[in-house]
Amino acid sequence: MASRSSAEAATLRSEPGFSFSAAAGPLPPEVIADVAEACGAGASSILSLPFTTPAFRRLQEETEACLRRLLAIPDRFRVLFLAGGASAQFAGVPMNLLGTKERASYVESGCWSRRAIAEARRYADVSIVACASGHISDVTDWQVDRHAAYCHLTSNETADGLQFHDFPALDVPLVADMTSDFLTRPLDFTRLSLVYAGTQKTIGTPGLTIVIVDEGLLQRAHAKTPRVMDYTQQAEAESRLCTPPVFPIFVAHRMLHWIEARGGVPAMACAAKRRSDALYAALEEGEETFTTPVERAHRSLINPCFRLADEAQTALFLHAAEAVGLRDLRGHPEVGGLRVSLYNGIADIAVDALVGFLRAFARRRSRGKGV
Asked: Over the stretch 186-218, which tens digit does the pLDDT of each residue have?
């Protein structure tokens, strides 16, 4: 059994081509090599590092310091390293921020914002300030409840291909789920009061969620909030109230330093625009073959979503793409269609290969031929 598992693992590692999965982003080869070396056998392996040691505390401090440099996080914000996925914060946000209030405002922009709204309704009276379907309405049209404890939005909808390229200035604290576009662009912390993001897409592996919270929002948690989900208690314990996710923090440390060495967040933003521009250009060139559901000004630079004009050909498209090593292009099960994920670790050669395939597919379809 052990030998078969090893063989299966080797097959997965050596599978040719490129993955564009929305679930988890690829790590750059340099980061993979660094992490693999650190996982070596013996007591020095990162896999055996106790969180109670000075070595881990240095790792955590360096990770936070690099994150603060990359995003220019003001001193008044606390950075929390929490175990689990970002979906836990769908409950964590209302439990921590409602305080004595009962109301919260949410922007409904797609699949993931709807999940956040459904969870928040277990704890708060939720008002929908705006519905974004293919486009984002002007903030002057938003119906933000001035008595709400906060307003929540999902900055980038991976399933729907819609992204907030700017954050509005509101009269209530603005909370952003940035799981899928974290560290892909600079942030304006004069407008944001809380940001949370799982790390598996843009800066690491599953198991770690980073919460960046204005300390003015602490001390508001509901009395029945579990201690491990209480932002105030985690901040006071320096994210070590319970065992933190040591390995994902190590991977994030390496990924953050990789980003910094390549020009920081502005460089990641330029790369995201360059890659998405090339992809959208190919889709527009094949306008008889492809359709894009989101208006140009609000299209995601990180998760472009599109459909075939003849949706019956979707299975053919996916089969042809996989035949040339372009994998994981199927859209979210709740939305359908097709999507591409352009997270920080994606290689330019992968995007070039996909753009070439899109153009070839469109040419052959326009000639009435298969692929």
From this structure: 999 999 999 999 999 999 999 999 999 999 999
**Token pair 């372009």 is at which residue?**
326
Calpha distance 306→284 (Å, rounded): 11
Do residues 135 and 259 make contact, with C-beta atoms less than 8 angstroms apart?
no
Strand pairing report for 151-154 and 326-327: unpaired
Residue carrying structure tokens 């175990």: 83
pTM over 0.85: yes
Q: Say if residue 166 is in the same domain as residue 275.
A: no
Q: Are residues 59 and 112 in the same domain?
A: yes
My answer on whether 196 and 70 are in the same domain is yes
Bridge partners (DSSP) of residue 326 are 18
- The strands making up 305-308's β-sheet, listed across from edge to edge, are 290-291, 305-308, 338-339
In a domain, 371, yes or no: no
Let me know whether 165 and 304 are in one domain.
no
Residue 142 annotated in active site = no
- How many angstroms separate the CA atoms of 95 and 12, rounded? 40
Among this protein's residues, is 369 annotated catalytic? no
Distance between CA 8 and CA 52 in Å, rounded?
35
End-to-end Cα, the chain, rounded Å:
40
Separation between Cα atoms, residue 115 and residue 177, nearest integer Å: 12
Instruction: Give the range of the structural domain holding residue 97, as residue numbers without chain letter.
Output: 33-261
Q: Indicate whether 10 pLDDT > 50.
A: no
CATH number of the domain bearing residue 67? 3.40.640.10
Q: Model confidence at 134, in pLDDT bands (50, 70, 90)?
A: confident
Q: Which is the catalytic residue, given 34, 112, 181, 230?
A: 112
Let me know if 75 is a catalytic residue.
Answer: no
Of the candidates 246, 261, 276, which is a domain's last residue? 261
Domain boundary (202, 227, 261) is at 261
Band of residue 368 on the pLDDT scale cut at 50, 70, 90? low
Task: Kindly name the residue from 181, 201, 230, 328 that is annotated as catalytic.
Answer: 201
